Amino acid sequence: MKGRFNLYVTILQAIYVGLFVAFLLNAFTVDFLFAPPALAILRVPTNLREIGLLLNAPWTQSLKIYHIFLLIAFILGSLNLIGLSRLESHIWRSICKISSFFGLLILWAGFLFFMLPFLIQGADYNPVYLRTSLIYAAVTFILLIVDLSTFAAAEEYKAEN
After folding, report:
1. In whole angstroms, what is the distance from residue 154 CA to residue 13 CA?
2. Residue 78 in 3-state DSSP?
3. What does residue 117 show for φ and ψ, rounded to 5 degrees?
4. Domain boundaries along the sequence of the chain
5. H or E segment at 53?
6. 3-state SS of the chain: helix, strand, coil percent to 5?
7. What is the pTM of this model?
8. What is the DSSP secondary structure assignment for residue 63, as one 8-state letter?
9. Strands (DSSP E) found in the chain
10. What's the pLDDT tens digit per position in 50-64?
11. 56 φ/ψ sector (left φ>0, alpha ψ -120 to 50, else beta)
12. Rg, C-alpha atoms of the chain
């Protein structure tokens, strides 16, 4: 059972490292290698303007919410990755569980933020905005599943030892 658990933790660590690499490559290659119309969906979500209008707030406020969400998700993901590599330590296991718990809350709020155009009735949206919302909501949901798996791994390690 210990070997399967170690494999599970290694897979989670590989997923976190892969996500960090993918997001860094996305941030640098999309802005520097391709002209602005190309790969626009990988840049800042185009639906932020519409969400801002929906909330009766300037779209820059939606952009700030998005950037805060990214920063918090990066910090919590980093803590999760370090915590997974140091599960033997009671302190890091606790940090991993706490950061995973807050990650669940933040990612769930991010998921709802991107699903907002689908949850509010009566708004007429451009299909591109809806597609963008769906893509970003799907990515956030995948991150939510990875974060939940991290919490389960930290709990399982405590139960095994």
Report:
1. 13
2. helix
3. -60, -25
4. 2-160
5. helix 48-54
6. 80, 0, 20
7. 0.79
8. H
9. none
10. 666 666 777 777 777
11. left
12. 18
Distance CA 156, CA 154 (A): 6
Does residue 19 contact residue 146 with C-beta atoms inside 8 Å? yes
Per-residue pLDDT at 60: 75
CB atoms within 10 A of CB 7: 10
Q: What is the pLDDT of residue 57?
A: 74
CB count within 10 Å of CB 42 equals 14
Per DSSP, the residues of 120-131 read STT----HHHHH
Q: Using alpha carbons, list the distances in angstroms from residue 3 to 10, 30, 89, 90.
A: 10, 39, 19, 20
Residue type, 146: V
Distant-in-sequence contacts of 37-42, Cβ < 8 A, 24+ apart: 41/131, 41/132, 41/135
83-96 burial, b for 16+ CB within 10 Å, e for fewer?
Answer: bbeebeeeebbebb
pLDDT band at 32 (very low <50, low <70, confident <90, very high): low
Show the tokens assigned to 14: 């590989």
Q: Which two tokens stand for residue 44?
A: 């800042």
Token digits for 148?
A: 């939940």
